[in-house]
Write a structure and sequence with these properties.
146 residues; two-stranded antiparallel ribbon; 5 helices; 2 strands; 5% strand
Length: 146
């Protein structure tokens, strides 16, 4: 199943494009657009297109934020996925090693997310159990006013 741009990865793509002199075609432009894995070594080409006032490290961070997103990594992990140039043209298939590495990476992320969700549910249940105890202290015997 091809990966498509959701709100979070689209925002990352828009952030990256905003740092460039012109948008690059490999990035999604709208919700539901396909996510296209970058051609190996595309980073320097993207950096060469940054706006003059944009520091290299700012642009590098935006690239990292995009390619480290779960959605992008999921796109790389898909069977038959291709790598694309700056204009969004397919140039080569994702290597089996890269695909396998990303599949494993995505599985690890999904397991961590399940563990965080389970831990949060346990914490919420524990907090609810503490709050569910007696809320009013029993009046000491013989202290009723009269």
């Amino acid at each position: 199943m091809p990966s498509t741009a959701g709100p979070a990865v689209l925002a990352r793509a828009q952030t990256l494009n905003a740092l460039l002199m012109a948008p690059i075609g490999v990035l999604p432009a709208a919700l539901g657009d396909p996510l296209r894995p970058f051609q190996v070594g595309l980073g320097p080409e993207i950096l060469a297109r940054r706006r003059p006032e944009v520091a290299v490290n700012v642009c590098e961070r935006a690239i990292r934020n995009y390619v480290r997103s779960f959605s992008y990594r999921h796109a790389v992990a898909q069977p038959g996925s291709m790598r694309y140039d700056l204009d969004g043209n397919p140039v080569e298939p994702v290597s089996e090693k890269d695909r396998h590495d990303m599949q494993r990476n995505c599985e690890v992320d999904q397991e961590r997310a399940r563990q965080r969700k389970a831990a949060a549910a346990l914490a919420a249940a524990a907090a609810g159990a503490e709050a569910g105890g007696p809320t009013e202290e029993a009046a000491p015997s013989g202290s009723q006013g009269g």
